[in-house]
Hints:
- There is one protein chain.
- The protein is elongated and about 85 Å long.
- The chain is built from 14 helices and 14 strands.
- α7 crosses α8 and α9 (298-316) packs antiparallel against α10.
- The protein is of the alpha/beta class.
- 36% of the residues are buried.
- α1 links the parallel β1 (8-12) and β2.
- It has 2 domains: 8-72 and 93-177, HUPs (Rossmann fold, 3-Layer(aba) Sandwich); 181-364, Argininosuccinate synthetase, chain A, domain 2.
Amino acid sequence: xxxxxxxxxxxxxxxxxxxxxxxxxxxxxxxxxxxxxxxxxxxxxxxxxxxxxxxxxxxxxxxxxxxxxxxxxxxxxxxxxxxxxxxxxxxxxxxxxxxxxxxxxxxxxxxxxxxxxxxxxxxxxxxxxxxxxxxxxxxxxxxxxxxxxxxxxxxxxxxxxxxxxxxxxxxxxxxxxxxxxxxxxxxxxxxxxxxxxxxxxxxxxxxxxxxxxxxxxxxxxxxxxxxxxxxxxxxxxxxxxxxxxxxxxxxxxxxxxxxxxxxxxxxxxxxxxxxxxxxxxxxxxxxxxxxxxxxxxxxxxxxxxxxxxxxxxxxxxxxxxxxxxxxxxxxxxxxxxxxxxxxxxxxxxxxxxxxxxxxxxxxxxxxxxxxxxxxxxxxxxxxxxxxxxxxxxxxxxxxxxxxxxxxxxxxxxxxx
Length: 416
């Protein structure tokens, strides 16, 4: 059951209740070194005293890596280019962060000579699958320890009691039992009263965005410029990938943009209610879609939308380090070669309204689309097209006119 040969464990550490307790529990259970690793992904938590808290919990050290630019450039913008949305609404803020964290978790394990890694994902959630599939793909020799599947604790209240007993410093109070996850892309909220999908979320659940119903901010217009599917300029100013997302988060949040309240199908088979805030991502997705609408032909756009669903599912299921993801990225990268141009948007009370879009690769021709006189399109050409396009309908109608309607039984009867 418990692995006795572990000498050094690297723990994916957030500094929250779960991982603070896990540090102490790992030390007590395995009697080994525990090195904490924290990925700085733009989360809301204060990281300034993180090492102090980790050591107070019993850790032998803490390694922090600032991964914000890598996160935006190599992960978030891949989502954007793919147009991947899980179950119609979820922009995959938590799911897309896990492969990046796992990659660096394994790298840190190699750096410190660890023979095991650990995570704080619960046995009911998706993250346990995401972390462990990534570790399996990156280094199958590393042991993976999942305390929530081993120990006797069953609730956050149990963890709070353990923390008090062992004097572990934590920042969670018993009357604030929402489970939250935040990074550069979004913040999610689960648990507590949110577990009942029949209950409307209290307004104090939201931490980033203003209530669209009470926003008094006047409409605001912005422009986003893309180069091969990647946003590179905001209102004419060049921004790094992380700065682009951070700035749009601020702008979108004050307009109440990016709130999602949904019940999703977890990978482990159950349904879960989650509240998400993704202000910057919502704006970027809308702008990107508008630019694609004028530069991609019908067949390519249709296939891209079909594959985007598979890509979203792949990300959600933790299958990032797979040949399929690499192949899909190659397809999306090819489609994005012409997704260059500028989109103007109006933001107002939770809504994103595209109002203008331009591109040197635009397939839109005003001389073709105009209702006025033109010298390019001959209206008479439509006659032959309609006749050929509707030929199967005509043939079927003629057949029904001359053939009596027969029941399924009559169709199956044999002539004597």
